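Weekly puzzle thread! Below is a chain. First person to post its structure in token form gets bragging rights.
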Amino acid sequence: MMKYKRIPVPAAHGYAPQKGSHSGISYDDILTAPPGNPETAVKKQEITKSHLIAMLMAGVLLVVLYISNILAIKGLLQEQFMLLKEKTRLEEKNDLVRAEIQRLKSVVYLPRLAERRLGLVHNPHQPTTLVVYGIGEK
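Winning reply:
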């Protein structure tokens, strides 16, 4: 197992303080600083209470939107189901009306209707042809 070796501050390449000046940079800052200027070392940012509250509010908002979406989809599915039932009912009613129309158009129904409603009577004799101006025969 390899252990890490600490490098003394004056021997750290590129980070050795200049003679006679202490820039206020600690030894730990030198070890964790990126290459380049040690003054611009990235410091760890802490999450503040306001950031935490904002993230929680955003999370709550997303959950509320998700739930409202689920409820809207459920309502649309119920409406679709009701419309499908209504369509099926209307198609069945259309089929019944078509059957009634065919029944009323039938050859069997019309003579009975003429006899009952209009008082027409079926003539058992063949109809005769009238002769007009000597044209036509009997």
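Puzzle host: Confirmed. Bonus trivia for everyone else. Residues 130 and 138 are 7 Å apart (CA to CA).
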